[in-house]
Amino acid sequence: MKRFSLHSLSFRLILALTLFLALAYSSPAYAKPQDKLMNRPYADLKRWHLGFSVGMHVQDLSFTHNGLISDDAQRWVAEVPSFSPGFCVNVLGALRLHKYLELRFTPGMYFGSKGVVMRDYDSDLSRTQDVKGAYVALPLDLKISGDRMRNIRPYLSSGLMAAFDISKKRTEVLMFNASDLFLCVGLGVDFYLPFFKLNPEIKFCFGLTDILKHDRPDLTDDPESFKMTQALSKVKQNMVVLTFYFE
User: Fold this and answer.
1) How far apart are CA 168 and CA 181, in angstroms?
2) What does the DSSP assignment read for 131-184?
3) Between these two residues, 7 and 52, which has the higher pLDDT value?
4) How many whole angstroms separate alpha carbon 199 and alpha carbon 90?
5) pLDDT for the residue 228
6) CB neighbours of 220 closer than 8 A, spacing ≥ 6?
7) Residue (of 49, 24, 241, 47) closest to 150 by Cα position
8) How far apart are CA 180 and CA 158, in angstroms?
9) For a tag on the chain, would you pick the N or C end, based on fewer CB atoms within 10 A?
10) Is the pLDDT of residue 178 over 70?
11) pLDDT at 48 over 70
């Protein structure tokens, strides 16, 4: 399966959403708003909103190396050179706070993986590890909306997301904590359709905690693997999530 860089996909997703919004606002339907009826005109006046979402995401790891040189003169570094898209599904509960503010709680499941490559900086030695995860995610976001223009309304979001990996783990060179906390920022647009509201959204999630397990007594008898863990000061997670909400 073909794999792409995380930064390249992030740029493409942002560009596609920006172009889509630009075309939507500049289309003839919005140049003459009197010619188009408003769908669901009272949808935003409800105190509570319920819904669900499906989407895709990519996971990345940010490594901080300490420059450790082992007794056999090896200096190991790690990176995630590529990624595999994952799947996510959420339920939505939203509380209207103000005309422009909404508090959203969107618990769900995130399934994905990332390939880690560890290599000796001064030789051709390398080792790979496939890191798979099944996360229970608990995002809490503040949605900040703009003014509605007929049947579209752009918005920004910001919040925190707690995540807990419930997948069964086996002993690997790099082991990670099951829980993490993310800072999330996103942008999207509400489309008011005749029978429901559709919200495509792109969100960037930045891990706030070091998830690497540094204490590894299980590697005491495997110094070749242990020195790869010793070469890392900390590891943080990042995610880019493209979601489609239905309300």
Assistant:
1) 20
2) EEEEEEEEEEEEEEE---BTTEEEEEEEEEEEEEE-SPP---SS-B-SEEEEEE
3) 52
4) 13
5) 85
6) 226
7) 24
8) 17
9) N
10) yes
11) yes
pLDDT average, residue stretch 172-187: 94
Tokens of 232: 């890392």
pLDDT at 57 over 70: yes
Question: Which pair of structure tokens corresponds to residue 10?
Answer: 């992030």
**Residue 107 · residue 136 · CB < 8 Å:** yes
Helix (H, G, I), strand (E, B) or coil at 230: helix
- Domain 6-246 CATH assignment equals 2.40.160.20: yes
* Strand ranges for 193-246 from DSSP E: 197-207, 232-246
Q: Read out DSSP for 70-134?
A: -TTS--EEEE---EEEEEEEEEEEEEE-SSSEEEEE--EEEEEEEEEEEEETTSS-EEEEEEEEE
Q: Which amino acid is at 201?
A: E
Give pLDDT, residue 151.
93
On average, the pLDDT of the chain sits at: 85
Put residue 102 in one of left, alpha, beta given phi > 0 → left and psi -120 to 50 → alpha. beta
pLDDT value of residue 161: 97
CB-count exposure of residue 138 (10 Å: 0-12, 13-18, 19+): middle
Distance CA(137)–CA(134), nearest Å, equals: 9
In the chain, where the domains are located: 6-246
